[in-house]
Amino acid sequence: MTDRRLARRGKPLATLALVGVLTACGGGDELALEDTAPDQIFQRAELELARGDADDAAALFAEVERLYPYSDFAKRGLIMQAFAYHKDRDYENARAAAQRFIDFYPADEDAAYAQYLLALSYYDQIDQVGRDQGLTFQALQSLRTVIERYPDSEYARSSILKFDLAFDHLAAKEMEIGRYYLKRGHYPAAINRFRAVVEEFQTTTHTPEALSRLVEAYLSLGLVEEAQTAGAILGYNFRSSPFYDDAYRQLTGRGLSPEARGSGWLADVYRRTIQGRWL
Known about the structure:
Elements: H1 3-7, H2 16-25, H3 38-50, H4 54-67, H5 72-87, H6 91-104, H7 111-123, H8 134-149, H9 156-183, H10 187-200, H11 207-221, H12 224-237, H13 242-252, H14 265-273
């Protein structure tokens, strides 16, 4: 959330009056929150956020919600909890707060932002999940919800870009595993991974390499027609790619040419995507 967006949510982050209240506490004593007006707690939370203490800010926003559950400040405190937790990289609590906001205030103007924060709490963990892609799928699902439910919101475009990146990430993981199998001579397992990229992630940047690797794997197994068909698809769609140059050399080095042959799954891909025939 930008400073501009924070500023739109009400009073400035810190006023002289608020600073006076906090200073009066002195000696490290905590402000008696039960006896404090919701706007003062809210401003204190914003001040902590501005100071970079997102964890304490989230706790204070939660206190606003707890002490004044039916007030407008409770609603504002809940969305700010989600933001503060996300800023603190406490993604699990960020998701919980964002989901509560969506459940309690589905028609509110900030519901789109809550859904976006929910998606971000998955998306920002993608690089942390290793080979487990569960959070990536969750990110894709949540980003799709933003795109479809709030197409006119300010978050839709960002969600589309992040959706494409997350989708590309899934394809990259398939390629990583496929290359691992290919390097160790586990050709059927490698083919399954590269096939997934060609069939399920064909719009990503990894498709040319997947087709080239399929040429290599099929040639290693002696499955010439499949290798030639993979080369034909690669040549038709990605002729300027260096992966096509590599696949072409592999094929011609064995006296073969890239052309559609046989009746396997790659022949089906060739028929649908290049010839435009589905039957």
